[in-house]
Design a protein that fits this description.
Elements (H helix, E strand, L loop, with lengths): L1 H11 L2 H12 L5 H24 L4 H12 L2 H40 L2 H5 L7 H30 L4 H31 L5 H29 L4 H15 L1
Helix pairs in contact: 2-3, 2-4, 2-5, 3-4, 5-7, 5-8, 5-9, 5-10, 7-8, 8-9
Length: 246
């Protein structure tokens, strides 16, 4: 009986709150799960506040309006939350890039140290052009790995200014996309130019890279959309700048 009464009270004070939460959610871009968690937390907080006002003597609509009014307008709240979503998505993309490149680099090193490349090429030595392309690919992957670490560290502990963070998040999205593009081109060339029948075996092993590339591209897309320059984000940028100047 008590639980049913509490449920009815919750339903009575949730109409305007749901509209306000939906208005905030419509302005947000980023991780679906993180966005849902944030909105659920906001709704729970607003419902608790409205129920407290209702127990203090306000009617249901009055309690809702007061809770929503004190929480703040949807546009301003969404702008502040978009900052959180953008940074989180940028950091997630950088970490995913680090994991993918780290696993690829470690696997390649282990394969080479155990004589895997010689077995793959069936004793046929690769030409100088093939070796140069392989080394260039390794150098690019190493540099991208370092860049991913730097981006993750900066988005976690550095870049306190919001507008600079937006630029770093966009660069992270571009970096992940470039890594995927370069990796696909170099991988295709190394497969086609591989001596002996090694190209067929490399192609089979490239399925894992294709899956990780798809994940990286999806994360990079979410990263770019989360940091896209929109009016609400420009408002948040100005607020952040004014707060920092104080």
């Amino acid at each position: 009986m008590a639980s049913r009464t509490h449920r009815r009270e919750t339903e009575q004070v949730s109409g305007l709150i749901d509209d306000h939460v939906s208005a905030i959610g419509d302005r947000l871009r980023g991780s679906v799960r993180l966005r849902a968690d944030i909105l659920a937390e906001i709704r729970d907080g607003l419902v608790d506040a409205a129920e407290a006002y209702q127990r203090a003597g306000l009617t249901g609509p009055e309690a809702q309006r007061k809770a929503v009014r004190e929480f703040g307008p949807a546009r301003q709240i969404a702008a502040d939350l978009q900052h959180v979503l953008a940074v989180a998505q940028g950091r997630r993309t950088a970490l995913l890039l680090f994991v993918v490149l780290g696993a690829q680099y470690a696997g390649s090193e282990l394969f080479g140290r155990t004589g895997g490349w010689q077995q793959l090429w069936e004793g046929v030595p690769p030409g100088p052009g093939y070796l140069w392309l392989a080394r260039a690919t390794d150098v690019f992957s190493g540099l991208a790995l370092v860049a991913a670490v730097v981006a993750a560290v900066l988005l976690r502990w550095g870049l306190r200014h919001f507008d600079i963070r937006l630029a770093a998040i966009r660069l992270t999205a571009v970096l992940a996309s470039v890594v995927v593009g370069v990796g696909m081109v170099c991988g295709a060339l190394l497969t086609v130019l591989a001596p002996g029948d090694g190209g067929v075996r490399v192609l089979v092993g490239g399925v894992g890279w294709a899956v990780s590339s798809a994940l990286l591209l999806a994360s990079a897309r979410h990263c770019w959309l989360a940091a896209a320059e929109r009016p609400d984000l420009r408002v948040a940028t100005r607020v952040a700048r004014s707060g920092a100047s104080r």
